[in-house]
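batch job 7 of whatever, protein = Sphingomyelin phosphodiesterase
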Amino acid sequence: RGGYYVVKVREHLKVISLQTNFCNTDNYWLLINSTDPAGQLQWLVEQLLQAERDGDKVHIIGHIAPGLHSCNPVWSSNYHLIVNRFESTIVGQFFGHTHHDSVEIHYDDKNVS
């Protein structure tokens, strides 16, 4: 549903693929619902809660990286809240779209150490 899915690639490791066109600033449907189009972020929380309960680690993949100028700031903010909550479960995030190699470090909003 919606082009996002989860795959268990081996014991205790899941890959969650997000449909990040839902955050694309060129997506005019975001004018109707920029918070959580298609319920994807709620689904992500449910998947991460299950992974946490099962003791699984998660890699998240997608095209447009949250935080880029081409990703809606409301969607990005909600995504970052989720990442902060599940910092012990999410062990890697991999995005494309920029057409160059880069690394982005995600810091906890409340504890920058």
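notes: The first helix runs from residue 40 to 54.
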